[in-house]
Write a structure and sequence with these properties.
It is a single chain. This protein has about 290 residues and is of the alpha/beta class. It is about 40% helix and about 20% strand. It is built from 11 helices and 11 strands. The strands form 2 sheets. Strands 3-4-6-7-8-9-10-11 form an 8-stranded mixed beta barrel, surrounded by 6 helices. Strands 1-2 form a two-stranded antiparallel ribbon. Strand 7, helix 6 and strand 8 form a beta-alpha-beta unit. The termini are far apart. The structure holds ligand C2E and magnesium ion (MG) (3 copies). Ligand C2E binds next to strand 4, helix 2 and strand 8. This is Bifunctional diguanylate cyclase/phosphodiesterase.
């Protein structure tokens, strides 16, 4: 294992950096088997505009381990990314999501779906062509697929990443920049990446209504994105006040538990059908007791 000294010189064990513990190797093998057996599921979380129209649904991977129960995506995505399993996981997610989009379209539900892709995918030779082939196989137009990337795609080989992204947008796939504001955010990245949407990370959105600095950051991000012609989605909207602030700041769409958490396919279908052309209606806030 990898030991590291903290600032006081005390040795600390960093499980996150340790990619070869029996635990991680065990999980990796289990994940590979779960993918082969089709035991990994996708749940879908809506992105809605302020008029209630459904802008799309984001596919989020869900894995229930037979002994450990739910494993958080952040945990097994990191393992897949550092082990070479990532391309396989992404193929699985794309395949499952596109099959779902095709089923929804067959029922008249023409809603775009967003799939998260990792930096590893963007550096896999032939990725753009493989996505285009998969779209064609499912009879899904490229405009019905969005891919969410993070700025990390530019860290390793920016030229190759740029080529892949140009290939994808050339086929008509829409790109979205996820988790904006965390890590390496810079204006250079925004200029270099052919994205049409920017998602403000939940860490800024969560305290928007109570923290004036976060509110200022969100306001500037929205203005910057708009001046570059991008749509802005806020992640992690949990309450009415945050919704109202974002609407007043000119944000385009929101995602979060206020609207809906990620839902299994049948529940997402029912959710879409229930909204129909009416869109999502924000529940009326409870009246103060004094009234
Ligand atoms: P992300 O793409 O930024 O997804 C947003 C995360 O925030 C999701 O967590 C979602 O369930 C959660 N979330 C949504 N609304 C709220 C809210 O109102 N409050 C709070 N507290 N959380 C909310 P999840 O599903 O655990 O996924 C975590 C991350 O794992 C994702 O972050 C994404 O980076 C990654 N991930 C998930 N599915 C996939 C996938 O299929 N492929 C890849 N490469 N990464 C994935
Ligand atoms: Mg995402
Ligand atoms: Mg995100
Ligand atoms: Mg996030």
């Amino acid at each position: 294992y990898q030991a590291k000294r903290d600032r006081t010189g005390v040795e600390v064990y960093e499980s996150k950096r340790d990619s070869n513990t029996p635990d991680r190797l065990g999980l990796l093998g289990d994940l590979r088997r779960a993918l082969d057996a089709g035991d990994v599921e996708l749940h879908y979380q809506p992105k809605v505009r302020f008029d209630g129209q459904v802008a799309g649904l984001e596919a989020l991977v869900r894995w229930v381990h037979p002994e450990r129960g739910k494993v958080p995506p952040d945990e097994f995505i990191a393992i897949a990314e550092s082990s070479g399993l990532m391309p396989h996981l992404t193929e699985y997610v794309l395949e499952t999501a596109l099959a779902q989009v095709a089923r929804w379209r067959a029922r008249g539900l023409r809603v775009p779906v967003a799939v998260n892709v990792s930096p590893r995918d963007v550096h896999t030779p032939g990725f753009a062509g493989a996505v285009a082939a998969r779209l064609a196989r499912h009879g899904v137009p490229a405009g019905a697929l969005q891919l969410e990337i993070t700025e990390h795609v530019l860290l390793e080989d920016p030229q190759r990443a740029a080529d892949t992204l140009a290939g994808l947008t050339g086929h008509g796939v829409k790109m979205s920049l996820d988790d904006f504001g965390t890590g390496y955010s810079s204006l250079v990245h925004l200029r270099r990446l052919p994205v049409s949407e920017l998602k403000i990370d939940r860490s800024f959105v969560a305290r928007l209504a109570v923290d004036t600095e976060d509110a200022e950051i969100v306001r500037c991000t929205i203005d910057l994105a708009h001046s570059l012609g991008l749509l802005v989605v806020a992640e992690g909207v949990e309450d009415d006040e945050t919704w109202e602030r974002l609407r007043d700041l000119g944000c385009d769409a929101v995602q979060g538990w206020l609207v809906a958490a990620a839902m299994p396919p049948e529940e997402a279908t029912a959710w879409l059908l229930a909204r129909g052309s009416r869109g999502w209606q924000r529940p009326k806030a409870a009246l103060p007791a004094a009234l």
